[in-house]
Amino acid sequence: MTAPDRSLLRPGMTVWIVLKQDQRTGKRTRGVIKDILTKSPRHPHGIKVRLENGLVGRVQAIVEE
Known about the structure:
Distance between the termini: 19 Å
Strand order of the largest sheet: 1-2-3-4
CATH architecture: Roll
Low-confidence stretches: none
Radius of gyration: 10 Å
Mean pLDDT: 95
Number of helices: 0
Strand content: 35-45%
CATH class: Mainly Beta
């Protein structure tokens, strides 16, 4: 599974992210995007975002609801 490009992400979207402390295990956290922090169009480990609850991590997948 490849991480989504920045162009697919918008504030308010629900996504799965991997937090910095969870990178070794790959444990994912679900949340709603508040801010997109990565400026480049894509990143091999996922676009870095800040969630509405303040957590920061890299997007692994968009939640399809």
